[in-house]
Amino acid sequence: MAVRAATEADLPGILAIYNDAVTNTTAIWNETESTLEARRSWMAERTGRGFPVLVADDNGEVAGYATFGDFRPHEGYRFTVENSIYVRADRRGRGIAAAMMPPLIKAAEKLGMHAMIAGIEAENVASIRLHERFGFREVARMPEVGRKFDRWLDLVLMQRMLG
Q: Does the predicted TM-score (pTM) go above 0.90?
């Protein structure tokens, strides 16, 4: 498996992972699936700003993707990014997310970012543990700030200082 920059050809694989997370998990708090055109625009916006969109390429198949974007839209937050890492359902637990984290952190540092944030649904223990392994620490826990699947969701914010 190799971690590399995503290309246009990877978008169907990224879309499938995204939509699976929307439909079946609380990792993404959206309830509406995306489209290929929306993912194309999303990737163009990210890469156009110099932000990476990485994929875990497993023999030509997209096994996962990782990126970061603005933490908040206000100028004062311009040196803080929020990461997103998603792995295909049938490939979870194989170290794919862990393989994508170092190049994601390195890309943020190369861009001069000061902090990386992860917003994680509180019951997603695997994601919390992954982030802890890479030096993130919990900085906030916000009860019942989201809702999906007819239940309230708690948000854990984790942070890693960069550089």
A: yes
Per-residue pLDDT, 148: 98
**C-alpha to C-alpha distance for 57 and 3, rounded to whole angstroms:** 6
Q: Which of 13, 8, 160 is nearest to 86 (CA)?
A: 13
Cβ-Cβ contacts under 8 Å for 14 (sequence gap 6 or more)? 6, 39, 43, 53, 55, 62, 65
For residue 95, the one-letter residue type is G
C-alpha angle 51-68-159 in degrees, rounded to nearest 5: 135
Q: What is the C-alpha separation between 14 and 88, in angstroms, rounded?
A: 9
CATH top class, domain 2-161:
alpha beta
Q: How far apart are CA 5 and CA 54, in angstroms?
A: 4
Contact 17, 65 (CB under 8 A): yes
The answer to whether the beta carbons of residues 124 and 132 sit under 8 Å apart is no
